[in-house]
């Protein structure tokens, strides 16, 4: 009997171990997974500030800008639709590694009246936490009882994915995006004003569960001698008004939060009441009605940075050699930011000025030069890159290469063509046009191949810092960009 018990226990331990190994393979591979693995388990960076909350926070406070302007280290742990109870358990997980950070908490999801958040939003966090007592508590308190087995063993939830599994499911890259420090904001302009009445007086209740977990977070910070700052991101209150699972008067609810903050000596920054002070233009600085864009984030981050420097004893690490990786990460971030802005431009006249980047390799390719030569406006626009476009021998194809803002190649050639050469700074480049695949352009830079099959003017933009093509467009006769 004793031997059988030992065998059963051994079998059970081995089975659980196998499941723990297999679970991560089936879990959905998202940016949320990458950032949480980085911020919770992978990196040894010690953060001065941890940013917690929902997607409002994810696109509001930018750790790279806190670093560049104030030398403050931080990480943005916010994920889409993150309920406040899940935030509590995520913060507990953060504090296993980071002992004395300032905690900046987005309060938007205090308005949720449902007992539990949406399954997908909860999974952004819990699926990506290591197995621990804290994770179990998060499951038992933040998810419906009938879903517990699927959170404890995600493979049971995702087992049907086995036909969809890709290489990234087995070897998931959590390193290459670390430079963003968990932040992400869009590059479009919302174009509408907020209809929120921020002058509303009086207070209203907090939903029972969100009130419970707000006080749990307050108590957790007190127990660990942590400074807590509450923030309310810019958003249009009216867009969620009337939702069946949301507080019916969030303006008054926010007033109640301000009251709780004051009673507990906690700073509360309500950005919705500070637009004039920080020069925030809702039309231009919002991506949509609830999320700031990259330019709005700059203003919101700068305000928080000033507040933190004025009210807390935070060292400026920018000249500290031990933090050199943060400077390197910032350079990478700025290039990625420019690339994201570039990809939002849809007219060639507006596009060309954004190509003035010393880190760009630009390949311009066209099967039919006469089509380009006959288009005066397009031709003049392209000359803004330093191209001559005055070749009289109008054969089929046109190719130009611009490297570090200098034209290294500009020629008219045959439709079927293959060029292999090395740029001035030893970057290998290959350009191929294929007859068997009509109008196909194949461009290979540093061994990476990019293909376009459009019979237009084609432009590939490769960023040497990022080590990849950041855009590959075609331009129609009216100057409109397609991707």
Explain this structure to me?
The protein is an alpha/beta fold and 483 residues long. It folds into two domains: 25-340, SGNH hydrolase (Rossmann fold, 3-Layer(aba) Sandwich); 348-482, no CATH class. It has 19 helices and 15 strands. The chain has a six-stranded antiparallel beta sheet with strand order 8-7-6-13-14-15, with helices on one face. It has a five-stranded parallel beta sheet with strand order 2-1-3-4-5, sandwiched between helices. It has a four-stranded antiparallel beta sheet with strand order 9-10-11-12, with no helix packed on it. Strand 9 (417-422) and strand 10 form a beta hairpin. The mean pLDDT is 89.
Ordered list of secondary-structure elements with their pairings:
Blueprint: H1 2-26, H2 31-42, E1 49-52, H3 55-58, H4 63-70, E2 74-76, H5 84-94, E3 102-106, H6 119-126, H7 133-142, H8 148-152, H9 154-158, H10 167-170, H11 208-223, E4 228-232, H12 250-263, E5 268-270, H13 275-278, H14 282-285, H15 294-311, H16 324-342, H17 348-351, E6 360-366, H18 369-373, H19 376-382, E7 397-403, E8 406-413, E9 417-422, E10 428-434, E11 440-445, E12 448-452, E13 457-463, E14 468-475, E15 481-482
Helix pairs in contact: 4-15, 4-16, 5-7, 5-11
Give the C-alpha Rg.
27 Å
**Helix and strand composition category:** alpha/beta
Low-confidence stretches: none
The number of helical runs is 19
Strand content: 15-25%
């Amino acid at each position: 009997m004793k031997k059988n018990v030992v065998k059963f226990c051994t079998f059970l331990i081995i089975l659980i171990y196998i499941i723990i190994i297999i679970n991560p393979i089936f879990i959905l591979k998202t940016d949320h997974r990458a950032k949480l693995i980085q911020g919770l388990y992978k990196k040894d960076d010690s953060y001065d500030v941890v940013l917690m909350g929902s997607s409002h926070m994810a696109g509001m406070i930018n750790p790279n800008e806190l670093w560049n302007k104030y030398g403050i280290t931080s990480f943005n742990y916010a994920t889409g639709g993150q309920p406040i109870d899940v935030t509590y358990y995520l913060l507990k997980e953060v504090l296993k590694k980071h002992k004395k950070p300032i905690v900046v908490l987005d309060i938007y999801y205090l308005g949720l009246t449902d007992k539990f958040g949406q399954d997908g939003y909860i999974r952004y966090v819990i699926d990506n936490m290591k197995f621990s007592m804290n994770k179990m508590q998060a499951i038992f308190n933040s998810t419906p009882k009938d879903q517990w087995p699927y959170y404890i063993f995600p493979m049971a939830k995702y087992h049907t994915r086995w036909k969809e599994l890709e290489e990234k499911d087995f070897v998931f890259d959590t390193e290459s995006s670390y430079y963003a420090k968990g932040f992400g904001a869009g590059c479009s302009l919302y174009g509408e004003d907020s209809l929120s009445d921020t002058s509303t007086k009086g207070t209203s209740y907090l939903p029972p569960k969100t009130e419970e977990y707000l006080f749990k977070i307050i108590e957790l910070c007190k127990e660990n001698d942590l400074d807590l700052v509450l923030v309310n991101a810019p958003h249009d209150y009216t867009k969620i008004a009337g939702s069946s699972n949301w507080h019916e008067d969030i303006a008054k609810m926010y007033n109640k939060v301000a009251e709780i903050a004051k009673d507990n000596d906690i700073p509360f920054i309500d950005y919705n009441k500070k637009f004039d002070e920080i020069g925030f233009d809702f039309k231009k600085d919002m991506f949509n009605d609830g999320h700031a864009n990259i330019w709005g984030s700059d203003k919101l981050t700068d305000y928080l940075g000033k507040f933190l420097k004025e009210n807390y004893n935070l060292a400026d690490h920018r000249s500290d050699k031990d933090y050199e990786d943060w400077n390197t990460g910032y350079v990478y971030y700025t290039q990625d930011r420019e690339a994201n802005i570039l990809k939002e431009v849809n007219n060639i006249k507006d596009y060309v000025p954004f190509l003035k980047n010393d880190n760009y390799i630009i390949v311009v390719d066209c099967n039919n030069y006469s089509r380009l030569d006959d288009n005066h406006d397009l031709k003049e626009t392209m000359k803004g890159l330093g191209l001559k476009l005055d070749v009289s021998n109008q054969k089929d194809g046109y190719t130009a290469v611009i490297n570090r803002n200098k034209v290294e190649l500009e020629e008219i050639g045959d439709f079927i063509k293959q060029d292999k050469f090395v740029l001035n700074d030893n970057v290998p480049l290959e350009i191929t046009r294929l007859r068997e695949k009509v109008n196909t352009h194949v461009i290979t830079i540093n061994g990476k191949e990019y293909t376009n099959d459009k019979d237009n003017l084609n432009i590939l933009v490769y960023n040497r810092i990022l080590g990849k093509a950041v855009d590959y467009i075609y331009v129609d006769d009216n100057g409109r960009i397609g991707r």
